[in-house]
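Dear support,

I submitted the protein below through the web form. The confirmation email said the job was done, but the results page showed an empty box. After a refresh the structure appeared. I'm attaching both so you can tell me whether what I see now is the final result or a partial one.
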Amino acid sequence: MEKTKVKKMLFILSKATLENVYAAFIMANGARMEGIEAEIFFTFFGLEAIQKKKLESLHTATVGNPAMHMPTMLGGLPGMEALATKMMKDRMEKLDIPPVGEFLELLSDSGVKLWACLLAVDMFKLKREDLIDELDDIINVGSFYARANEDGCHLLFI
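What the results page shows now:
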């Protein structure tokens, strides 16, 4: 019995913290570089990553983030989130990782499909013009799952 090769990766992004957004973007970009189809479904707070007015002001989560290695109370102090965000952005810039808007353009140009969740768009009262031009469409969950209905397709929730 032959194993099915990964042919397609579908990422579900539900939170627009820098660490979640870049995890999804880097994984989708890596898939394309390996010749694997990739799609990202932006739902709930993940929609902020594709909102024109919000995508360049995403933050690093400091409260409740065990990877920060600091007490929750310290993470909640005024200015800590801004400091952590600046440090993360500076490190990414040194590694030549593009800002969110530019990364979205690169993903779209490489063939990554970008979808917004219809329910979440309606819930947050967004309009198509609020979202990036590179967005392929606004679709419902059923349509997204239908895109996964093939051999070699995997879903990853981030």
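Response: this is the final, complete result; the empty box was a page-load delay. The chain has six helices and five strands.
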